[in-house]
Specification:
Helices cover 33% and strands 22% of the residues. The chain contains eleven helices and 15 strands. Strands 1, 2, 3, 4, 5, 6, 7 and 15 form an eight-stranded mixed β-sheet that branches. Strands 10-9-8-11-12-14-13 form a seven-stranded parallel β-sheet, with helices on both faces. The chain binds nicotinamide-adenine-dinucleotide.
Length: 353
């Protein structure tokens, strides 16, 4: 049985042939539809679990499962190692997404999860912002200018008429390098002090690697009354980006409540103070429309449904373009009853594969 591998080289071909904007637009469309059509009797999402990675590089390695009943399980294995960029020149978030057949357990496909995670995290924020942010939002503020900031801004730029971007990072080198990384968007992107970013943003994205116990990362005392915040970096117990006072005066919408209560901004709130989750927003946006004039927060911890959608979008592109490498990874192409059947042929027990 075949397994399709979609590698970094295949992704480069997909982007070259589909276009980076068309790729993001297609994902925005597919993810919004998946949220609107989400049916928990058909799709089972589990909250993630993981292991702590050891010092001197504290972080986590986690697994995020989702099952579409009768069809497939998508499982993302994702690590968060915030020292990676400085120590090894590789991303903080490293992941791979695998797709399994639910009848047999066979691995159908294995897809890079680094680009996939960045794409879907940006798309989720843009969709939440479409429902919660002021429709005339023109100024985007970025707090944390690393990898996720690129796709936060890209996805938002496909939904809003952004005129100006103000960006702050605690690391001056990262802050300085952002404009070049997002120059393909043709927006005015200015490094700015935190207080200026906070005061001028209509939409604020916090995507920082703040340490557990060191948050919040914004002060929240001079925000615009209608500001919408995509809080992306709060995804571990004790790791928060927003002050409690901001959460208390805002409509706080988690991507996945069960998970956000453990590791999102929602860990700071009692359940009755938490607003609708992303699926509820997508199904009934009109119910929450009045909030676009007021303060709102999207508590993004990372929802496995987003991984399912982006994995399938990338696979569809790869299949349409004839990309990917087919391998026989699993030792199942021999005899069902003989694990040595293929690898250790013996007289009288020849197998076809
Ligand atoms: N919600 C999701 O679905 C999701 C998905 C991917 C990543 N994340 C989280 O988003 C965050 C950013 O991920 P990334 O891949 O961009 O990491 P990254 O390492 O590329 O960038 C993080 C940046 O945050 C900066 N930073 C740290 N503390 C700061 C502070 N107090 N103020 C301003 N900047 C600060 C760092 O200097 C760094 O440049 C991480 O916490 C990650 O776990 C969430």
């Amino acid at each position: 049985m075949d397994t399709l591998l979609i590698t970094q080289q295949d992704l480069k071909q997909i982007v070259a042939r589909v276009g980076i904007h068309a790729l993001m637009d297609g994902l925005l469309h597919s993810l919004e539809r998946a949220l609107q059509e989400f049916d928990e009797t058909q799709t089972e999402v589990r909250k993630r679990e993981g292991f702590l990675l050891e010092a001197p590089q504290p972080g986590v390695l986690e697994w995020m499962p989702v099952m579409r009943k009768g069809d497939s399980v998508t499982l993302k294995i994702v690590s968060y190692a915030p020292a990676n960029p400085r120590r090894f020149g590789i991303p903080t978030i490293i992941a791979n997404n695998s797709l399994y057949d639910v009848q047999t357990g066979h691995l159908r496909a294995l897809v890079d999860g680094v680009l996939a995670t960045a794409l879907r995290t940006g798309a989720a924020s843009a969709i939440a912002s479409k429902y919660l942010a002021h429709p005339d939002s023109r100024v985007v503020g970025l707090v944390g200018c690393g990898a996720q900031a690129v796709t936060q801004l890209h996805a938002l730029s496909r939904v809003f008429g952004i005129e100006r971007v103000l960006a702050y990072d605690i690391d001056p080198d990262v802050q300085k390098s952002l404009p070049a990384r997002v120059a393909f968007l043709g927006l005015e992107v200015l490094p700015a002090p935190l207080e200026v970013v906070e005061a001028q943003a209509d939409i604020l994205c916090t995507a920082t690697s703040v340490e557990v116990g060191a948050g919040p990362v914004i002060r929240g005392t001079a925000l615009k009354p209608h500001v919408h915040i995509n809080a992306v970096g709060s995804d571990l117990p004790g790791k928060i980006e927003l002050p409690l006072a901001v959460l208390e005066r805002s409509l706080v919408c988690p991507d996945f409540l069960a998970q956000a209560l453990v590791e999102g901004e929602c860990q700071q709130l009692s359940p009755e103070k938490i607003g609708p989750h992303l699926v509820e927003l997508a199904k009934e946006p009109a119910r929450f429309q009045a909030w676009r004039q007021r303060g709102t927060v999207f508590d993004s911890t990372g929802f496995a449904l987003e991984d399912q959608v982006v994995t399938e979008v990338l696979l569809q592109h790869a299949l349409a373009l004839g990309l990917g490498t087919v391998v026989q990874l699993e030792n199942i192409n021999g005899s069902a009853l003989d694990p040595y059947g293929y690898v250790f042929p013996r007289p009288g027990l020849e197998v076809a594969a």
